[in-house]
Model the fold of this input.
Amino acid sequence: MSKSCNYVAVGGQALMEGIMMRGPKGTAMSCRLPDGTIETEMKEFTSVRKKYPVLNTPFIRGIISFVESMILGYRLLMESAEKTTEGIEAEESDSKLDKWLSDHFGPKMMAVIGTVASVLGIGLAFLLFFYLPTLTYSLLNEHVIKSIDLSDIHGFNFRPIIEGAIRIVIFVFYMWATSKMKDIKRVYMYHGAEHKTIFCFEHGHELTVENVLKEKRFHPRCGTSFIFVTILLSILISSVAAMLLPRSITETRWLWIIIKLLLLPLIMGIGFEFIQLAGKYPNRFTRLLSAPGLAMQRITTAEPDGPIAEVAIEAMKACLSGEAPPKEEKAECAECAEVAETAETVETEDETEDSPAEKCE
Done:
Protein backbone atom coordinates (compact mmCIF):
# COMPACT_ATOMS: atom_id res chain seq x y z
CA MET A 1 0.00 0.00 0.00
CA SER A 2 1.21 3.48 -0.77
CA LYS A 3 1.67 5.57 2.30
CA SER A 4 1.26 9.35 2.42
CA CYS A 5 4.61 11.17 2.37
CA ASN A 6 4.23 13.08 5.65
CA TYR A 7 1.51 11.42 7.70
CA VAL A 8 1.14 12.81 11.21
CA ALA A 9 -2.05 12.65 13.24
CA VAL A 10 -3.33 16.18 12.64
CA GLY A 11 -7.02 17.03 12.57
CA GLY A 12 -9.19 20.05 12.99
CA GLN A 13 -12.57 21.67 12.98
CA ALA A 14 -14.00 24.85 11.50
CA LEU A 15 -15.32 27.37 14.02
CA MET A 16 -17.06 30.73 13.83
CA GLU A 17 -14.46 32.86 12.03
CA GLY A 18 -11.79 30.48 13.17
CA ILE A 19 -10.25 27.02 13.17
CA MET A 20 -9.25 24.48 15.80
CA MET A 21 -6.28 22.20 15.05
CA ARG A 22 -5.18 19.17 17.05
CA GLY A 23 -1.61 18.02 16.51
CA PRO A 24 1.24 16.16 18.22
CA LYS A 25 2.13 19.16 20.42
CA GLY A 26 -1.36 20.17 21.50
CA THR A 27 -4.65 21.75 20.52
CA ALA A 28 -4.73 25.26 19.08
CA MET A 29 -7.58 27.63 18.28
CA SER A 30 -7.12 30.58 15.94
CA CYS A 31 -9.84 33.19 15.36
CA ARG A 32 -10.14 36.28 13.20
CA LEU A 33 -11.31 38.94 15.63
CA PRO A 34 -13.61 41.85 14.70
CA ASP A 35 -10.61 44.24 14.62
CA GLY A 36 -9.00 42.13 11.88
CA THR A 37 -6.27 40.52 13.98
CA ILE A 38 -5.71 36.78 14.44
CA GLU A 39 -5.76 35.48 17.99
CA THR A 40 -4.25 32.03 18.62
CA GLU A 41 -4.54 30.16 21.90
CA MET A 42 -3.35 26.75 23.05
CA LYS A 43 -6.13 24.73 24.67
CA GLU A 44 -5.64 22.21 27.45
CA PHE A 45 -6.92 18.84 26.32
CA THR A 46 -5.83 15.34 27.27
CA SER A 47 -7.64 12.39 25.76
CA VAL A 48 -8.88 9.71 28.12
CA ARG A 49 -7.33 7.27 25.67
CA LYS A 50 -3.91 8.32 27.01
CA LYS A 51 -5.00 7.88 30.62
CA TYR A 52 -6.64 4.49 29.98
CA PRO A 53 -4.81 2.58 27.21
CA VAL A 54 -7.62 0.03 26.95
CA LEU A 55 -9.79 2.78 25.44
CA ASN A 56 -7.26 3.12 22.64
CA THR A 57 -8.04 -0.38 21.41
CA PRO A 58 -9.18 -0.54 17.77
CA PHE A 59 -12.96 -0.35 17.36
CA ILE A 60 -13.25 1.08 20.89
CA ARG A 61 -11.21 4.22 20.28
CA GLY A 62 -13.58 5.32 17.52
CA ILE A 63 -16.58 6.03 19.76
CA ILE A 64 -14.30 7.60 22.42
CA SER A 65 -12.69 9.87 19.85
CA PHE A 66 -16.09 10.88 18.47
CA VAL A 67 -17.48 11.82 21.89
CA GLU A 68 -14.33 13.76 22.80
CA SER A 69 -14.38 15.60 19.48
CA MET A 70 -18.03 16.54 19.95
CA ILE A 71 -17.44 17.89 23.48
CA LEU A 72 -14.24 19.79 22.66
CA GLY A 73 -15.50 21.01 19.30
CA TYR A 74 -18.75 22.34 20.70
CA ARG A 75 -16.97 24.13 23.57
CA LEU A 76 -14.55 25.85 21.20
CA LEU A 77 -17.35 26.65 18.76
CA MET A 78 -19.21 28.55 21.48
CA GLU A 79 -16.00 30.26 22.58
CA SER A 80 -15.19 31.34 19.03
CA ALA A 81 -18.69 32.74 18.64
CA GLU A 82 -18.15 34.89 21.75
CA LYS A 83 -14.71 36.09 20.63
CA THR A 84 -15.70 36.99 17.09
CA THR A 85 -18.78 38.97 18.15
CA GLU A 86 -17.23 40.72 21.13
CA GLY A 87 -17.53 44.49 20.88
CA ILE A 88 -20.00 44.37 18.02
CA GLU A 89 -23.10 46.34 18.96
CA ALA A 90 -26.42 44.78 18.13
CA GLU A 91 -28.39 46.63 15.49
CA GLU A 92 -31.62 46.01 17.35
CA SER A 93 -32.40 46.29 21.04
CA ASP A 94 -32.32 43.17 23.18
CA SER A 95 -35.51 41.16 23.22
CA LYS A 96 -37.41 40.43 26.44
CA LEU A 97 -35.98 36.90 26.42
CA ASP A 98 -32.41 38.25 26.13
CA LYS A 99 -32.97 40.61 29.02
CA TRP A 100 -34.54 37.87 31.14
CA LEU A 101 -31.65 35.51 30.49
CA SER A 102 -29.10 38.23 31.22
CA ASP A 103 -30.81 39.21 34.48
CA HIS A 104 -31.15 35.64 35.75
CA PHE A 105 -27.90 34.06 34.55
CA GLY A 106 -25.54 37.01 34.02
CA PRO A 107 -22.05 35.86 32.87
CA LYS A 108 -23.29 32.26 32.68
CA MET A 109 -25.88 33.14 30.03
CA MET A 110 -23.81 31.78 27.11
CA ALA A 111 -23.19 28.53 28.99
CA VAL A 112 -26.93 28.13 29.59
CA ILE A 113 -27.73 28.88 25.95
CA GLY A 114 -25.03 26.42 24.85
CA THR A 115 -26.41 23.66 27.08
CA VAL A 116 -29.95 24.17 25.81
CA ALA A 117 -28.70 24.27 22.21
CA SER A 118 -26.73 21.03 22.64
CA VAL A 119 -29.75 19.23 24.11
CA LEU A 120 -31.95 20.46 21.27
CA GLY A 121 -29.27 19.45 18.76
CA ILE A 122 -29.11 15.89 20.10
CA GLY A 123 -32.89 15.70 20.05
CA LEU A 124 -33.02 16.97 16.47
CA ALA A 125 -30.37 14.46 15.36
CA PHE A 126 -32.35 11.61 16.94
CA LEU A 127 -35.56 12.83 15.32
CA LEU A 128 -34.07 13.27 11.84
CA PHE A 129 -31.77 10.26 11.59
CA PHE A 130 -33.43 7.62 13.75
CA TYR A 131 -37.11 8.22 14.29
CA LEU A 132 -38.07 9.89 10.99
CA PRO A 133 -36.57 7.18 8.69
CA THR A 134 -38.26 4.45 10.76
CA LEU A 135 -41.59 6.30 10.74
CA THR A 136 -41.34 7.02 7.01
CA TYR A 137 -40.65 3.37 6.26
CA SER A 138 -43.64 2.26 8.35
CA LEU A 139 -45.97 4.71 6.61
CA LEU A 140 -44.60 3.72 3.21
CA ASN A 141 -45.04 0.03 3.94
CA GLU A 142 -48.53 0.40 5.41
CA HIS A 143 -50.18 2.98 3.18
CA VAL A 144 -48.27 3.37 -0.09
CA ILE A 145 -47.22 -0.10 -1.18
CA LYS A 146 -50.05 -2.18 0.22
CA SER A 147 -49.62 -5.21 -2.01
CA ILE A 148 -45.95 -5.81 -1.09
CA ASP A 149 -44.53 -6.40 2.37
CA LEU A 150 -41.20 -4.59 2.17
CA SER A 151 -39.99 -6.25 5.36
CA ASP A 152 -39.84 -9.66 3.72
CA ILE A 153 -39.21 -10.11 -0.02
CA HIS A 154 -37.86 -13.55 -0.94
CA GLY A 155 -36.76 -14.00 2.66
CA PHE A 156 -34.74 -10.79 2.78
CA ASN A 157 -35.65 -7.85 5.03
CA PHE A 158 -35.31 -4.65 3.01
CA ARG A 159 -36.18 -2.39 5.93
CA PRO A 160 -32.56 -1.38 6.82
CA ILE A 161 -31.78 -0.56 3.17
CA ILE A 162 -34.86 1.61 2.71
CA GLU A 163 -34.37 3.36 6.04
CA GLY A 164 -30.71 3.93 5.18
CA ALA A 165 -31.64 5.45 1.82
CA ILE A 166 -34.10 7.78 3.56
CA ARG A 167 -31.39 8.73 6.08
CA ILE A 168 -28.97 9.58 3.25
CA VAL A 169 -31.57 11.80 1.55
CA ILE A 170 -32.26 13.63 4.83
CA PHE A 171 -28.54 14.09 5.53
CA VAL A 172 -27.73 15.43 2.05
CA PHE A 173 -30.71 17.79 2.05
CA TYR A 174 -29.90 19.04 5.57
CA MET A 175 -26.27 19.81 4.71
CA TRP A 176 -27.28 21.46 1.42
CA ALA A 177 -29.87 23.64 3.17
CA THR A 178 -27.43 24.79 5.85
CA SER A 179 -24.82 25.64 3.20
CA LYS A 180 -27.17 28.34 1.90
CA MET A 181 -27.05 30.21 5.23
CA LYS A 182 -24.61 33.13 5.18
CA ASP A 183 -22.91 32.40 8.52
CA ILE A 184 -22.68 28.66 7.85
CA LYS A 185 -21.20 29.31 4.41
CA ARG A 186 -18.37 31.19 6.15
CA VAL A 187 -17.86 28.18 8.42
CA TYR A 188 -17.67 25.94 5.34
CA MET A 189 -14.99 28.24 3.90
CA TYR A 190 -12.95 27.77 7.08
CA HIS A 191 -13.64 24.03 6.76
CA GLY A 192 -12.10 24.10 3.29
CA ALA A 193 -9.09 26.05 4.60
CA GLU A 194 -8.60 23.46 7.34
CA HIS A 195 -8.42 20.64 4.79
CA LYS A 196 -6.12 22.55 2.46
CA THR A 197 -3.73 23.40 5.29
CA ILE A 198 -3.57 19.80 6.49
CA PHE A 199 -2.90 18.64 2.92
CA CYS A 200 -0.16 21.26 2.55
CA PHE A 201 1.53 19.98 5.71
CA GLU A 202 1.13 16.31 4.75
CA HIS A 203 2.67 16.96 1.34
CA GLY A 204 5.70 18.56 2.98
CA HIS A 205 5.17 22.04 1.55
CA GLU A 206 5.91 25.30 3.33
CA LEU A 207 2.85 26.65 5.13
CA THR A 208 2.18 29.78 3.10
CA VAL A 209 -1.11 31.19 1.85
CA GLU A 210 -0.11 30.54 -1.76
CA ASN A 211 0.79 26.88 -1.11
CA VAL A 212 -2.32 26.24 1.00
CA LEU A 213 -4.74 27.64 -1.58
CA LYS A 214 -3.25 25.32 -4.25
CA GLU A 215 -4.27 22.18 -2.32
CA LYS A 216 -7.52 20.24 -2.61
CA ARG A 217 -10.28 20.94 -0.13
CA PHE A 218 -11.59 17.33 -0.03
CA HIS A 219 -9.85 15.28 2.67
CA PRO A 220 -10.49 11.56 3.34
CA ARG A 221 -10.26 11.96 7.14
CA CYS A 222 -12.99 14.60 7.25
CA GLY A 223 -15.86 14.33 9.72
CA THR A 224 -18.30 14.59 6.82
CA SER A 225 -16.79 11.44 5.32
CA PHE A 226 -16.97 9.76 8.72
CA ILE A 227 -20.70 10.50 9.03
CA PHE A 228 -21.39 9.29 5.50
CA VAL A 229 -19.36 6.11 6.02
CA THR A 230 -21.25 5.58 9.29
CA ILE A 231 -24.58 5.79 7.46
CA LEU A 232 -23.44 3.28 4.83
CA LEU A 233 -22.10 0.91 7.49
CA SER A 234 -25.36 1.21 9.42
CA ILE A 235 -27.22 -0.08 6.37
CA LEU A 236 -24.94 -3.11 6.11
CA ILE A 237 -24.84 -3.98 9.82
CA SER A 238 -28.55 -3.31 10.35
CA SER A 239 -29.33 -5.62 7.42
CA VAL A 240 -27.34 -8.39 9.07
CA ALA A 241 -29.10 -7.74 12.39
CA ALA A 242 -32.51 -7.78 10.69
CA MET A 243 -31.76 -11.22 9.22
CA LEU A 244 -30.63 -12.63 12.57
CA LEU A 245 -33.39 -11.15 14.74
CA PRO A 246 -37.01 -12.32 14.83
CA ARG A 247 -39.28 -10.43 12.48
CA SER A 248 -41.45 -9.30 15.40
CA ILE A 249 -38.56 -7.15 16.67
CA THR A 250 -37.94 -5.31 13.40
CA GLU A 251 -41.68 -4.67 13.03
CA THR A 252 -41.90 -3.02 16.47
CA ARG A 253 -40.90 0.56 15.75
CA TRP A 254 -39.44 1.65 19.10
CA LEU A 255 -37.76 -1.71 19.72
CA TRP A 256 -36.08 -1.52 16.31
CA ILE A 257 -34.90 2.05 17.06
CA ILE A 258 -33.35 0.83 20.33
CA ILE A 259 -31.58 -1.98 18.46
CA LYS A 260 -30.10 0.55 16.02
CA LEU A 261 -28.94 2.76 18.89
CA LEU A 262 -27.22 -0.22 20.52
CA LEU A 263 -25.45 -0.99 17.23
CA LEU A 264 -24.22 2.60 16.86
CA PRO A 265 -20.97 2.22 18.91
CA LEU A 266 -19.94 -0.78 16.79
CA ILE A 267 -20.76 1.07 13.56
CA MET A 268 -18.85 4.17 14.64
CA GLY A 269 -15.88 2.08 15.75
CA ILE A 270 -15.61 0.42 12.33
CA GLY A 271 -16.13 3.74 10.56
CA PHE A 272 -13.36 5.41 12.55
CA GLU A 273 -10.86 2.68 11.69
CA PHE A 274 -11.74 2.95 8.01
CA ILE A 275 -11.35 6.76 7.97
CA GLN A 276 -7.93 6.45 9.62
CA LEU A 277 -6.92 3.77 7.12
CA ALA A 278 -8.12 5.84 4.16
CA GLY A 279 -6.12 8.85 5.33
CA LYS A 280 -2.96 6.88 6.07
CA TYR A 281 -2.96 4.59 3.04
CA PRO A 282 -4.46 6.28 -0.02
CA ASN A 283 -4.92 3.69 -2.77
CA ARG A 284 -7.59 2.64 -5.26
CA PHE A 285 -9.53 0.59 -2.72
CA THR A 286 -9.68 3.27 -0.03
CA ARG A 287 -10.36 5.99 -2.61
CA LEU A 288 -13.28 4.01 -3.99
CA LEU A 289 -14.84 3.54 -0.55
CA SER A 290 -14.12 7.17 0.37
CA ALA A 291 -15.71 8.55 -2.80
CA PRO A 292 -19.24 9.15 -1.37
CA GLY A 293 -17.88 11.04 1.64
CA LEU A 294 -15.53 13.09 -0.53
CA ALA A 295 -18.44 13.96 -2.81
CA MET A 296 -20.39 15.24 0.22
CA GLN A 297 -17.54 17.63 0.98
CA ARG A 298 -18.51 19.57 -2.15
CA ILE A 299 -21.39 20.77 0.03
CA THR A 300 -19.72 21.01 3.46
CA THR A 301 -16.57 22.81 2.29
CA ALA A 302 -16.08 25.95 0.22
CA GLU A 303 -13.05 27.58 -1.37
CA PRO A 304 -11.38 29.87 1.19
CA ASP A 305 -9.76 33.21 0.52
CA GLY A 306 -6.32 34.38 1.66
CA PRO A 307 -7.33 35.83 5.06
CA ILE A 308 -9.16 32.62 5.98
CA ALA A 309 -6.13 30.54 4.93
CA GLU A 310 -3.97 32.71 7.22
CA VAL A 311 -6.09 31.70 10.20
CA ALA A 312 -5.74 28.01 9.34
CA ILE A 313 -1.97 28.35 8.96
CA GLU A 314 -1.64 30.01 12.38
CA ALA A 315 -3.63 27.20 14.01
CA MET A 316 -1.56 24.54 12.24
CA LYS A 317 1.77 26.10 13.24
CA ALA A 318 0.66 26.36 16.85
CA CYS A 319 -0.52 22.75 17.15
CA LEU A 320 2.75 21.54 15.62
CA SER A 321 5.02 23.67 17.81
CA GLY A 322 2.92 23.68 20.98
CA GLU A 323 3.24 27.46 21.27
CA ALA A 324 0.85 30.23 20.30
CA PRO A 325 2.38 33.25 18.54
CA PRO A 326 2.11 36.68 20.20
CA LYS A 327 -1.12 38.50 19.48
CA GLU A 328 -1.02 40.85 16.51
CA GLU A 329 -1.38 44.58 16.94
CA LYS A 330 -4.87 45.91 16.33
CA ALA A 331 -5.58 46.32 12.66
CA GLU A 332 -7.41 49.54 11.83
CA CYS A 333 -9.81 49.46 8.90
CA ALA A 334 -9.49 52.11 6.17
CA GLU A 335 -12.80 53.74 7.06
CA CYS A 336 -11.87 54.03 10.76
CA ALA A 337 -8.45 55.42 9.85
CA GLU A 338 -10.06 58.06 7.63
CA VAL A 339 -12.48 59.11 10.37
CA ALA A 340 -9.66 59.27 12.92
CA GLU A 341 -7.49 61.32 10.56
CA THR A 342 -10.32 63.79 9.90
CA ALA A 343 -11.00 64.15 13.63
CA GLU A 344 -7.32 64.76 14.31
CA THR A 345 -7.12 67.42 11.59
CA VAL A 346 -10.15 69.25 12.95
CA GLU A 347 -8.75 69.10 16.47
CA THR A 348 -5.42 70.54 15.29
CA GLU A 349 -7.14 73.37 13.46
CA ASP A 350 -9.20 74.17 16.56
CA GLU A 351 -6.08 74.37 18.68
CA THR A 352 -4.18 76.66 16.27
CA GLU A 353 -7.10 78.96 15.52
CA ASP A 354 -7.26 82.07 17.72
CA SER A 355 -10.34 82.67 19.82
CA PRO A 356 -12.44 85.88 19.29
CA ALA A 357 -11.18 87.30 22.56
CA GLU A 358 -7.55 86.80 21.53
CA LYS A 359 -8.22 88.54 18.22
CA CYS A 360 -9.69 91.52 19.96
CA GLU A 361 -6.62 91.87 22.12
Q: What stands out?
A: Residues 89-93, 331-361 have pLDDT under 50 and may be disordered. The first helix runs from residue 48 to 51.
